[in-house]
Amino acid sequence: MAGTLLMLAAAIFDVKRFSINTDIEGLISQDLPWHQRQIALSRAFPPKGIIAVVTAPSAENAEQAANLLAQTLSRQPDLFPLMEQPDSGDFFERNGLLFKPLADVRKTAEGLARMQPVLAALALDPSLRGIAKTLSFATAGVKGGAIKLDRLTWPLSLADRTLSDVLSGRPATFSWQELLEGQPLPDKQRRHFLEVQPALDFSALQPGHRAEEGIRRVAADLHLQDKFGAAVALTGPVPMNDDRFAVIRSSAVRDTFTAAFGVLIVLWLAVRSWKLIAAVFFSLIVGLSATVALGLVMVSAFNLISVAFFVLFVGLGVDFGIQFIVRYRAERHEHPNLYEALRWAACKVGDPLSLAAAATAAGFLAFLPTDYRGLSELGLVAGSGMLIAFVCSITLVPAVLALLQPPGEFAPVGFRGLTPLDDFLQRHRIAVVAVTLIVVLAGAPLLSRLTFDFNPVNLQRSDSPAVVTFRELQHDPEASGNDAELLAQSLGEADQKAKRLAGLPEISQTLTLNSLFPAEQEQKIAALSETSHRLGPALNPPRMQPAPNDQENAAALDAAAEDLAGAAGNSDVAAAASARHVSDLLRQLARSDAATRARAEDAFVPALVYDLNMLRKSLAPQFITIDTLPKNLVRDWLSPDGTALVKALPKGDPNDTNVLREFATAVLRAEPPATGGAISLYESARTVTAAFVQAGSLALVAITILLFIALRRITDVLMTLIPLLLAGVATLEVAVLDDLSLNFANIIALPLLLGVGVAFKIYYVMAWRAGKTGLLQSTLTRAVVFSGMTTGTAFGSMWASSYPGMSSMGKLMTIALLCTMAFAVLFQPVLMGRPRQVKEYSERDADLRQAAE
């Protein structure tokens, strides 16, 4: 009754208070110097959490879609406090040509001057009719010998593609910028992005979900896909983390039910009674509810690491319960009376369980002083949970058994079939120990190849839209997240730091605010000004032609088809063949229905109008200074107090962990105060690794002291620790052979190895001290094996997770568990040999031996 009331009270408290803090930045102590530098950087230059990437079939459509999306999002400051267009908008429309090399600017100016007649015709009549007449005008030049037909090859190829799409009913667009460029545009020019700082809710599992859905809803409401063929993809830290949490949530129910079903099957194989299973499960549920309640009291909200205590508690909580149940079954076989069997079971299992619980708790609590806050809180909650699991196992399990009155046991409990193997291992004890040591030590050089993959992107699904987009943007200096950043007291100091870093072979590019000022502006502006003077009358006719009706469009298209066919004649050159094919397409369009011609108009005309307006703006740029740059762009590089930002980009693949490691170490050697995405990842990995080394050392010392106090023999302590250490080394060796790197997710397997491993080793050394022989065939091995199987079932469900981080965690946990069980079940009994004589024990030890089988 008391257990039920405790469970209900704890469950009610858990439901009311349960929460998970999804703030990843809070997982590591903010007192660390590198984290302080990162916080200072974030304060000086607030990061944007979301990058909205707008892509379209043409540069014009991408620009228009990005501009429209930006304008609409800027009207929702509550959801999007800050929104910027780092590569588009009015400033770049007017001054974009200044950012090109001088030679390219002059080439563009000369090309525009040569196209003056064409531009004049299009500006006078920017319609489907005007486009058709311009084509007729060009063919007249071919017939008159002013130009060769080959000059029309590129325009005809673009027209061919667009007209074919229109006539076949496919989405169609025509890029006048591509026509002017004379070659296909790079993908970058068909892509623009918005940097958005969203309002986040860290009490939700997906803090940025509301903002992300807001962007998607705005894009849908604006019909960007229908109007411009534009797609909007979201990436950046917020969408990528939210995607990770969504995957974990979606697979959590499936994985939990799979694990629970598997654990039930294993428990059935272990105890063969639903009443016994009910006792273990009741103890587990009460203990878990109490641990959750205590954890919420101690840490207020679980973090993304400490929430893993659920798995640890289930694994070790079931272990304590199974140890008691299997011991009870053995005693019930010897003592038909239920209460007598329970008393004997408690007597025999009490000391090993209490020592295992204390050692396991000490191991977890050793994580408290580390700088890895996520792990520190996990140690606090899991360590407390181990003590709760122990209390529940020795109180609630026998209480439930007394209530349910399970039937007696008519067959001995254990693995009697393993007697030959038990005898074989003992007869060849020295050889087994020697071979095991040789194999493990021979594999020690493998540990030098053990790596820590500190790139969190590798822990996410490679087909996640946010991850795919993130990898595509990594080579773009305006969007790369794996960079290094420095704070400088002034722009001059920033330029000096950038110059020093630029000389490092690991760095491809450095940027400061002064990098945004184009070179040779005077010459570029002069060239564009001259072109503007020459094209002014052509681009700005005093009076434009009235818009045509459909009949006029059809007539102009038919006339252009005839003119183009006449220009091609019977020539067999490629340009003539292309001209004849386009002529056929124009004729089909002229004779199609009005709706088809309307689709053609949508494909050609809006882009033409947009580009003509863009051209008028771009021919009148302004000299770029810090005063004429957009204020938000300046704010990205210069804070109000004069602090300047320096950015460095890695040379090589920025998604490669080795490239990032070399890049980060090179930057830190040259500029120790550096921070930024790559530096934070690198320093996080160092902090996490150091935390595990520190905690592992403390745990080992604490467990050793505890074992020595309980066992009082250094040889017995070594008999417990040597298999534990060998299992740890073997786990890491197998991980290297399997090409499995440690990462922020699977490194959690190491404290589990410590917890489960020390418990199993203590069970065996206590039984050995009590004088028990034939350990492999004993009830103890049955309990250890089935306990390991239940834990392995839970880990196996994690291994099958669709989330790569969870999968790698489950995989390494499974490897660690198998190694731990192998060294506990097969190696430790052989290492210990036959028990010492009874006379060597104290009175307490003699009592234990008398109570043993």
From TrEMBL:
SUPFAM superfamilies: Multidrug efflux transporter AcrB transmembrane domain. One of its GO terms (cellular component) is plasma membrane. It is found in: Cell membrane. Signal peptide: none annotated. Coiled coil: none annotated. Pfam families: MMPL. The keyword Translocase does not apply. InterPro entries: Hopanoid_biosynth_HpnN (IPR017841), MMPL_dom (IPR004869), Mycobact_MmpL (IPR050545), SSD (IPR000731). It is a multi-pass membrane protein. Keywords: Cell membrane, Membrane, Transmembrane, Transmembrane helix. The chain crosses the membrane at residues 252-271, 278-299, 305-328, 349-368, 380-404, 430-452, 691-711, 718-737, 743-767, 779-800, 812-831. Residues 277-403 form the SSD domain. The keyword Transferase does not apply. PANTHER family: MEMBRANE PROTEIN MJ1562-RELATED, MEMBRANE PROTEIN YDFJ. This is Hopanoid biosynthesis-associated RND transporter HpnN. The lineage of its organism: Bacteria, Pseudomonadati, Pseudomonadota, Alphaproteobacteria, Hyphomicrobiales.
